[in-house]
Amino acid sequence: MGVDFNIVLEGLMTALQPINLFWVALGGFLGTVVGMLPGLGPATAIALLIPITFGMDPVSALVLMAAIYYGAMYGGSRSSILLNTPGDGSAIAATFDGYPMAQKGQAGQALAISAIASLIGGLVAIVGFILLAKPLASFALRFGPAEYFLLMIFTLSAIVALSKGAMIKGFISMTIGLLLTTMGIDLQSGVHRFTLGLPELSEGIDFLIVIIGIYAVGEVMFNYIGIDKIKTKSKEVGKIWITKEQWKRSKWPMIRSAPLGFLIGVLPGAGGAIASMLSYTTEKQLSKHPEEFGKGAVEGLAAPESANNAASVGAFIPLLTMGIPGSGTTAVILGAVVMLGIRPGPLLFENDPLLVWTFINSMFIGNIFLVIMNILMVGILVKVLDIPAKVLFPLILVLAFIGTYTLSYSTIDFTFLLIFGLLGLAMKLLDFPIAPLILAVIVGSDMEQNFRKSMVGSEGAFSVIFMSPITITLTLLTLLSLFYPLIVSWFKKRKIQKSL
């Protein structure tokens, strides 16, 4: 795709108009705030704010919705780091090392690393958007059901492989997650599966209820066990800027994870959760200090934050070039932009280049605005940690219940929330890894449907799964991710034996 720099410059000037800067700032702020609330992810935020765009100029409306989207990506990690409560699925990986950093008195630095990583991820992805939008859109079309099935298998295997020393527990955790996704009406046969006769379970259980229950409610229950031992004195928040050592350790993970997140984001249906999980597992495999992951490693926070934000930018490629939403959030945006008279598709770049380049330039501006805003807000946000536990925990529960209620406005979801809270508590007490369960809940349903579609298309021939170069590559990556820890361990033992 040739780039006309005159239209790029014209798009930049349009994006810098005061009214568009205002929408970028407002959307980024609202997205950050909503992203911090459990269950209220970017899709909900945009859906709630669509009425604001009525009567707006289409360019400004698209700029506003995009700012809400990547603002929510920033916001989701705030609650992950400070409260161990992710705003949505794509912010889960930020809890692995972000929350331990906050517990160690490095909350300010964790928030700063998160903001910088999100900025780098966003900017790298925007450059990728400019240069690779059309070729990547064509490549993404080569992904059929078999390719998506194996991509999800690869993601699950990578996250299970993280459970070093407890892979059996990791597999059990993943299996529980996959079983949960089988509840509800079978989309192909219409049969009710494991609904226990409850009509509320006919559509299955929303994965956000599982996330909120296990992380937010489970965390509160776990802390209540020893609440009398928790000191009420203020926790140290540390510096609000990163050290040279932290920058040195996190810069390459940020840079490496951005293209990975961007490419995952381009694939319709993959999304930020898979991108952040894959980047986390990749960095742990590459790290010289994998034993520090899960205990506050800066690389473990920087990598998924960069990938997460890059994926949010990549998700706009199938939306704008083919009219295919890459995630639930972009599906909401697609509905809104069509309502505004914009027709996403292959001809959008030719028919309305000013809109496209204004939008891309606004993402540049928005990411810079968000990192400045989030760093300025670090001092305010870390005050959350000063709230006494006996006040903070009830507040988290209130937010968890409100977030759950807004998903379907059904009080029975409160029961499920408590059940998953107890499950989260049990997993914490028994030292089961939670990430495989959460990821399985997120991708399980799509994985099953893609597998069954590939089987229907091939009339039951399993060979269809291993026939294309993409599926062969993904199969090899899956095997490598499962056996890589064993191979590394074998080489280390052999090296030690030789040195003796």
Automatic annotation (TrEMBL):
Q: Where are the transmembrane segments?
A: 21-40, 46-70, 110-133, 145-163, 170-187, 207-225, 258-280, 315-342, 354-381, 387-407, 414-444, 464-491
| Domain DUF112 residue range list | 21-439
Question: Pfam families attached here?
Answer: TctA (PF01970)
**Per its UniProt record, what InterPro entries does this chain match?**
DUF112_TM
- Keyword annotations from UniProtKB, A to Z: Membrane, Transmembrane, Transmembrane helix
Record carries keyword Ribosomal protein: no
Which N-terminal residues, if any, form the signal peptide?
Answer: none
Coiled coil residues, start to end: none
Q: Respond yes or no to whether keyword Cytoplasm is given for this record.
A: no
Q: Which PANTHER family would you find in this protein's record?
A: TRICARBOXYLIC TRANSPORT PROTEIN
Name listed for the protein in its UniProt record = Tripartite tricarboxylate transporter permease
Q: Which organism is it from?
A: Paenisporosarcina antarctica
